[in-house]
Amino acid sequence: MTPQGTVLLAGGGVTLPETVRAFIRFAGGVDARIVILAHTQSDLHEAGEQSVALFEQHGARNVVAPDSMQAETLASHLHEASGVWIPGGDQNRLMRLLGHSSAFRQAIQGVLRRGGVVGGTSAGASLMGRWMPTGERNAREAVRRGAVSLGRGLDLLPNTIVDQHFIRRNRWARLLCAVLEHPDCVGIGLDEGAWAVVQANQLRVYRGQVVVLRAVTTPRETGRLMGCRDLRMSLLLEGDTLLLGERRG
User: Fold this and answer.
1) pLDDT 10s digits, 56-90
2) Is 141 an annotated catalytic residue?
3) Active site residue 122
């Protein structure tokens, strides 16, 4: 899924100092070029400045938060970056602004190809998967087709769906529906305060609880109700690792 580079996923809530320091380390150190994409927020300038201050507080010396809305302009910033951070907010906002641009997508994927790091918290983490929950429909009463609204993510972790604030906001049914509708994908649910890293298809948990869901056998439907004879769930804790690239049986 990520043959080169690092994807850092944080589940939302307060971004921990250890998470920021680890991101800086994965980017190459305090002098690494880090680009903040605060386009998940309505006040792009203020959100960007807050993220810049957070990273500078922990030693980063080369951080920028471009407030351009032009995908091609942002792509030029990403060509020079070894780290890209996306804060929380609304994942749909960023995709509406930038997701249509192949230049932007190629540029952010290029950060990983060069061995850099792309990370995000909350909505920023959900953007990393192939599909992302949009929040427009959330499964509450039944596991059925169409109960959850999904949109395309940045596909930095191919064949994954990433959810956040997972246990705190009781999003089990949301991720389960998403995985059953897209059984080629692995579902990753990060609880609030949790964070994890994916390198070379391996997920490692650094803090908190992370749920991984996959359909082992092919899902089936009766009417619009969805089922699966063999679902595999892992509930991972700090220090646990798991390969994400295993195929269904």
Assistant:
1) 999 999 999 999 999 999 999 999 999 999 999 99
2) yes
3) yes
Q: Distance (Å, rounded) from C-alpha 4 to C-alpha 82?
A: 12
Residues 30 and 83: beta-carbon distance below 8 Å: no
Query: 51, 77, 82, 122: which one is catalytic?
Result: 122
pLDDT tens across 1-34, in order?
455 899 999 999 999 999 999 999 999 999 999 9
Does the model's pTM come out above 0.90?
yes
The CATH architecture annotation of domain 6-243 reads 3-Layer(aba) Sandwich (3.40)
Q: For residue 69, count other CB atoms closer than 10 A to its CB.
A: 11
What CA–CA distance (Å, rounded) separates 60 from 35?
A: 11
DSSP 223: T
First to last CA, the chain: 19
Contact by Cβ (8 Å): 176, 143: yes
Catalytic residue among 165, 181, 182, 192: 165
Domain positions in the chain are 6-243
